[in-house]
Design a protein that fits this description.
nine-stranded antiparallel sheet, two-stranded antiparallel ribbon, Jelly Rolls, binds calcium ion, mainly beta, 2 helices, elongated
Length: 265
């Protein structure tokens, strides 16, 4: 970058100074003190000031807003299990709900299908405890009554039901469900309580994405920046538990310098 700016300087004079100011982070880093990492598809370089990717996000990352790609799906390719069996004759195993394929057609072979007409559950082991908040469930594109009244629980072991964090409504109209399951846990479990009117207690889950903000970002879309000193802020409300970095102030350490990204929490 320095070489290109040198050429720029020779050709355009003062314009080069503007170039140098914008090119302060090494490729792959951006933002305040270059402390944030780009998460662009194919390792593409993001904007060194805003973090915006030129194209899509890397597989496990999702575009919050403005192409920042700071939401990580921590469920991707983790270990998924079920104690309620799978549909005989098909390879529709629990891991298909964390394989990164959001296809909602059962025949695609990328969905979990529990054994027919049995009380059912699906669980993913995240490997360690996380502060969970935003979850997206991709249900099969038909038979939405099968997810109605189901519940989501967080736990740190598999011996208990865990803590209820979300209950699906009695009527589900959208096969992609963005929901808030706020709490801490290593295991996330979806249970069908067996209250369907026709006793159809099957689970048909095509993908479950559990999103966390990258270090130093917060909000529903992880496109707000906190500037806490040596520690992350609360990923939901952005509050810093300690001091701010030099030059920043406020409960969220988000005033005193330029606001790097814009957008609602
Ligand atoms: Ca899938």
């Amino acid at each position: 970058m320095a070489a290109s700016c040198g050429l720029c300087c020779a050709l355009l004079g003062v314009a080069c100074c503007f170039c140098l100011v914008l090119s302060t982070c090494p490729p792959g880093q951006f933002g305040d003190s270059c402390s944030y990492s780009c998460h662009c598809e194919g390792g593409a370089v993001c904007n060194s000031t805003t973090g915006e990717c030129p194209g899509a996000c890397a597989l496990q990352w999702r575009d919050g807003r403005n192409g920042t790609c700071q939401r990580e799906n921590v469920a991707l390719h983790k270990t998924a299990t079920s104690t309620s069996g799978t549909l005989d004759g098909y390879n529709l195993t629990p891991d298909k709900a964390v394989d990164g394929n959001r296809t909602q057609v059962m025949e695609s072979g990328s969905c979990f299908h529990s054994a027919a007409n049995s009380p059912s559950m699906w669980r993913v082991d995240l490997g360690r405890q996380y502060r969970v908040h935003h979850v997206t469930v991709y249900h099969r594109n038909v038979l939405l009554h099968r997810i109605a009244n189901c519940s989501i629980h967080l736990s740190n072991d598999t011996s208990s039901n865990g803590t209820l964090c979300y209950t699906f409504p009695a009527t589900v109209n959208n096969s992609v469900i963005d929901l808030v399951c706020d709490g801490r846990g290593r295991y996330l479990t979806i249970r069908n309580p067996g209250r369907a009117a026709d006793h159809d207690d099957t689970l048909n889950i095509c993908e479950v994405e559990i999103y966390l903000c990258s270090h130093g970002t917060y909000g529903n879309f992880c496109n707000n920046f906190c500037n806490c000193l040596n520690i992350s802020c609360d990923p939901v409300n952005g509050m810093c538990p300690g001091d701010c970095r030099p030059g920043w102030q406020g409960q969220r350490c988000d005033t005193g310098e330029e606001v790097l990204l814009s957008g609602a929490v």
